[in-house]
Amino acid sequence: MYKNCTESDLEFDQHHIWHPYTSLLNPLPCYSVKEAAGVHLTLESGEQLIDGMSSWWAAVHGYNHPQLNNALREQSERMSHVMFGGLTHKPAIELCKRLVAMTPEPLDAVFLADSGSVSVEVAIKMALQYQVSRGTSHKNKLLTIRSGYHGDTFAAMSVCDPVNGMHGLFKGVLPEHIFADAPLLSPSDEWDESDIQSFKQHLEEQHASIAAVILEPVVQGAGGMRFYHPMYLKRVRELCTEFDVLLIADEIATGFGRTGKLFACEHAEVTPDIMCVGKALSGGYMTLAATIASRDIAEVIGRGPGGGALMHGPTFMGNPLACAVASASLDIIATGQWKLQVSAIAEQLARELAPCEALDSVHQVRCFGAIGVVEMKEALDVAKTQKLLVKAGVWIRPFGRLLYVMPPYIISSAELSQLTAAMFDVCCHAENLS
Ligand SMILES: *Cc1c(COP(=O)(O)O)cnc(C)c1O
């Protein structure tokens, strides 16, 4: 039986529950959601908001989706969870079959992780264990690019942007890796080799100590919502091969169609040695991610010390509920409908956000795939901006100077217009919102 969320519940929340990146001494206001269906979140107050965030890239098919609900219900009536050590099951096998089939050819060894950050930890562990296993343990550093985001656990944090990635706070504890300058050219710029210089120089000088390169292909998400030139990624792949360094592509935000390709690596026609997926993997229903490695990596690790075991194994690894709903989500992806949906969203975002750029408060508008970003000149006050957006009937969460949307693929053109109109409105009133 549904129980309403009361004022005192909300008070409890403010005093006792940490929300993402918040202080318990100075909590930000939170809106209580009663239910969600399609592209709508319904607040306790009854207000309906059009969702512009897909719950952080995840809910690509919208909420309360009948096919996903069914998969979850049916699986829950059979078995919700069993340990994955020594046991296996159809939901995990079905999901991994789909992942092996969807990802480029050499990627065929799947590790099921319980969150994106964990899948990044596992990718890093695989890369390091690979180097140890083939007798090149001196290759134990990671090379990445600035403005990246790879998650909040320690290994993942160590390759996030060193300035906005909390490196100062944890100095002395975080492993120190190597950072190349962030790419400057955007996908629509004319390619210029100077963009890759910093990266190339780091590899030339330090490849003997580098195990792997890790980056987000083409779209840098939470580290700054930046889009870079696919040629940059192409060069990265060539240089990794030349200098005998593994390439880890973090497709956690970009995977499953968001950028207009099934995986963002396809924009540069490159194949990584290890790929991380998460977020939209389960259609936003359950926490689930995966690290998919090439056969070669799996074999080298398999011949290595310690009996060749990959040393990782979360309690909830391969959770059947999460696997079942993820397979159902990938079946929707497999229909290919996302291609038309994403390209229509992309075209409309570019057209309807363009007028923002003429406003004094706006530094830059950039769009790529079904992602629209307005970078302001001044940081937006989250609470004030959110209030205005909720009043406009939309759910968009600003972040620093960034106001951005990555809506569910199923959003209608009219609903998307409501999102872009609300963003324009924020830009018009920015002086009251900083
Ligand atoms: C969100 C994200 C992660 C972390 O995933 P969690 O499920 O939040 O741990 C890692 N990499 C990228 C690119 C992401 O967008």
TrEMBL record:
UniProt-listed HAMAP family: BioA
GO molecular function annotation: adenosylmethionine-8-amino-7-oxononanoate transaminase activity; pyridoxal phosphate binding
Subcellular location: Cytoplasm
Entry function: Catalyzes the transfer of the alpha-amino group from S-adenosyl-L-methionine (SAM) to 7-keto-8-aminopelargonic acid (KAPA) to form 7,8-diaminopelargonic acid (DAPA). It is the only aminotransferase known to utilize SAM as an amino donor.
InterPro entries noted in UniProt: Aminotrans_3 (IPR005814), Aminotrans_3_PPA_site (IPR049704), BioA (IPR005815), PyrdxlP-dep_Trfase (IPR015424), PyrdxlP-dep_Trfase_major (IPR015421), PyrdxlP-dep_Trfase_small (IPR015422)
Superkingdom to which the source organism belongs: Bacteria
UniProt source species: Aliidiomarina minuta
EC number: 2.6.1.62
Catalytic reaction list: (8S)-8-amino-7-oxononanoate + S-adenosyl-L-methionine = S-adenosyl-4-methylsulfanyl-2-oxobutanoate + (7R,8S)-7,8-diammoniononanoate
Top-level EC class: transferase
GO CC terms: cytoplasm
Site (Participates in the substrate recognition with KAPA and in a stacking interaction with the adenine ring of SAM): Y21
Protein name: Adenosylmethionine-8-amino-7-oxononanoate aminotransferase
Pfam entry (one): Aminotran_3
Gene name of this polypeptide: bioA
Keywords: Aminotransferase, Biotin biosynthesis, Cytoplasm, Pyridoxal phosphate, S-adenosyl-L-methionine, Transferase
